[in-house]
What we know:
Blueprint: E1 6-10, H1 14-23, E2 30-33, E3 46-50, H2 56-66, E4 71-76, H3 81-90, E5 94-97, H4 101-109, E6 118-124, E7 133-138, E8 147-152, E9 155-160, E10 174-176, E11 179-181, E12 188-190, E13 196-198, E14 207-208, E15 210-213, E16 216-221
Parallel strand pairs: 1-2, 1-3, 3-4, 4-5
Antiparallel strand pairs: 6-16, 7-8, 8-9, 9-14, 10-11, 11-12, 12-13, 15-16
Amino acid sequence: xxxxxxxxxxxxDAKVVRSxxxxxxxxxxxxxxxxxxxxxxxxxxxxxxxxxxxxxFDALVDLRKRWPESLVAGHLxxxxxxxxxxxxxxxxxxVANRGALAAALRKRLAAGVPRRGRRVPLLALADxxxxxxxxxxxxxxxxxxALAVYHVGSRFLACADRCPHAGATxxxxxxxxxxxxxxxxxxQFDVSTGQRLRGPADTDIATYPTLEDGGQLYLLxxxxxx
Length: 226
């Protein structure tokens, strides 16, 4: 028997919990809480995350790696454009203020529980064994721009390979502790979140979700709406 799709509540905000618990049955989703034990090893279809909680952004990066095909919805207590954009860069599919989260999620789920995207093979994990730093470059056939894949610690991180300042190839620069330095003018970016850490570039770079499966690293590409 196929397990029913479910929604994981990674939040204790009472207002959000009530609204999501009301919404979930409309989309055919069972609700579970992050602290509840379960023997079900299926991935959640949806994760709702409190972005104001301590360590929330680290948790977001980790859960995106663990469940790359889940839809992640994050909520903030107050409007904060920088944190909103940072959450989207780190992997949130939906970001909303706590009072508007249920409506935003309902709209996203109106066509059914979505998958995050189709898989595009990038590299064999064995090819990156023992290597750190940039382990792959992609010309951009499946994304709007060229991307680079970095092996940082135990994680593979994909992000745009062109500096937004003058178009230099970022992966030709130095990577140190997850920060890539542009080889032309010295701009710096966090390859995990895409955040600009130092100019002269004045914008962040895009990041892309990946999935490790069967000895292969895949890029997850969102399907265009029909």
